Amino acid sequence: MKLKTALLGAVAAIGIAPAAFAERGSDGEAKILYWQAVSIMNPYLSSGTKDVEVSSLVLEGLGGFDEKGVVIARLAESVPTVENGGVAADLTSITWKLKPGLLWSDGTAVTSADAKFTFDYCTHPEGGCAQAARYEGIKSIDTPDDLTVVITFNGPKPNPYTAFVGSTSPILQKAQFEKCLGAAASTCTQENTFPVGTGPFRVTDFKVNDVVSLEANANYRDPAKPAFATLTVKGGGDAQAAARAVMETGEFDYAWNTQINPELQEQMKAGGKGVFVNGFGTLVERIEMNMTDPSPDLAEGERSTTKHPHPFLSDVRVRQALSMAIDRQALVDIGYGDSGRPTCNLVPAPEMFASDNTGCLTQDLEGAKALLDEAGWSDTDGDGIRDKDGKKLHILYQTSSNPVRQDFQAVIKSWWESIGVEVELKVVDASVFFGGDAGSPDTFQKFYADVEMYANNFDGTDPEPYLAQYLCDKIPGPENQWQGENVNRFCDPAYDALVEELSKTAEMSKRAEIAKKLNDMLTKDSFTVVSLVDRGRLSAASNTLGGVVLNTWDSELWNASDWYRMK
Question: What confidence score (pLDDT) does residue 337 get?
């Protein structure tokens, strides 16, 4: 059978325009604000965007994605395709060739053994890996020589650019991490905070949930880069203060995720110190429904696990009613203006993968009440709160600290209370919420609440690895150190089977059809994921910082090696 290769033809190894500097380290220090402070420098132990992106300054993959979503070569000589012989004609394998002479920041050689080790690290049966979906469908990885990595799949893999491609799937140094396999992974504090890497910078100091200090990597493959001798990534505060530090006071050069309302954006532009950079990709603000019981009455290790179904969110009518009560356009107006748009989809882009799923866009409070009535929830004592079998319809609604999110919590609470739901709000420090600490009760992976709200997105333009995060075996729990993106504990064999079908389907229109079905299973059919806003990335850059190119398909720091100080 002849397999279509349209997806593979969309990639190319492209060059980055030379930056306006001639010497490594000639431009002094750059200061970056990730107000959600960095907790760890190992993306395999954290799903938090702030940890993944700052780690990308140090750790790299064989390839990445440019600002258009095109696959580019990083540690590889070029991007393998069917046309150049790097991808097998039957799509069952991909062969990457490392650039000769690559060095780790400690001066030792980068080899194919490091890639093979990274695969073993993330897929170790006794460990937990936050990015395990990137390695889904791999049968084996072979290293016939020091510069060759051969990935063989269980069957045809139309999208082979998952493992070692993008900021969520970098290569770790075997020599540094070989004692950190399995259950030992989270115990390797030095390795996880001071990783030896190949990127333009190396860590010199690390303060958890505070500051990461970096310096130019003396062994970086381009001798003229990076322009900055040092880089400081500061955490703490909030999005508003971060934006102000660039746009008004000029204290910082770049502020990530300046999630502030439109009025504040306009006010800060008048400061004259910087500009907002904005672009739409796949970032969706949503509410995740917990399919398991988070009750503190359960033993630790059993809360929010599949041993105990949720007492009322297991009923799809309750989940649908909560979704119907939300006015998504009002949320956009409150929090985002032109940098947001209402959505019902988990996968809003690229356009070919976006489902025609618009039923949630019209708020229907009366319809929500009727569904709760049908589900047996009524206000028997007249206090305004529905009850059933002697239990109140009470929801603990958590999210991370952020002015826009707290505005969303307040207005969504009012809508839910208007249909008879008692709502308790919980706000968790963003650095903790997204930190991935297996010992913390407040991470979004542990999900010790009934519903939680946050946003994330996926690398590149193909949603297969992202949708694979909702497989049954990607559920975080005590047995995998609470790592994994299937935070709602959604488990449907039909969904798993459809993900497998997607992994084997090459024809692009059929891939799009399957991806839409998967999106709808999570959103329109089950209301396990209640999507709210398709968020544009909004960050702030100083007028004196050159080379910044916003990338919504990979790390925002994807081309930090090209940043420079404008004179």
Answer: 87
